[in-house]
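Write out the 3D structure for:
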Amino acid sequence: MMRVWIKYIIMFIVVVLLQVLLFNQVQFSGFVNPWFYILFILLLPVSTPGYAVLLLSFLLGMAVDIFSDTPGLHTAAALVPGYFRASVIRMLSARESEQSDYPGLMQTGFRWFVSYAAILILIHHFVLFYLEVFSFAGFFRTFIRSIFSTAFTLFVVVLSQYLVFRD
């Protein structure tokens, strides 16, 4: 049990550091921003209680906010997919018995993982970008930005599953 906690503590730290030191520097034409830190929420065990997912989502968002100087923006954006995570898992899983406790790509299959990740990343990005502009004046520009960033973040998340998170 302690080994699992250490694994997730290290994953938390690595994901935050990658986001802050690497992915915050990546931006294509102001439309594509990878928000890789959501991977931590995606890879929490399915059996994690809802309150723990929300608490970890809050801490993750707050850590990114502290290092990115965006007070509350990422905290709010990380809480929303953390809240909807269990519902998305139930919606995508036909039977409880076929669901692995670890929702990684190798354990759940490509189609399930991409659907799961795409839904939660899209939710995260919509909340993040619309809170960032805090206006519906540029609704379609923000919508396009959310879609493009979701596609790129999904690509990076799936790539990370093949390169790093193969257990």
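Residues 2-163 form a domain with the Arp2/3 complex 21 kDa subunit ARPC3 fold (CATH 1.10.1760).
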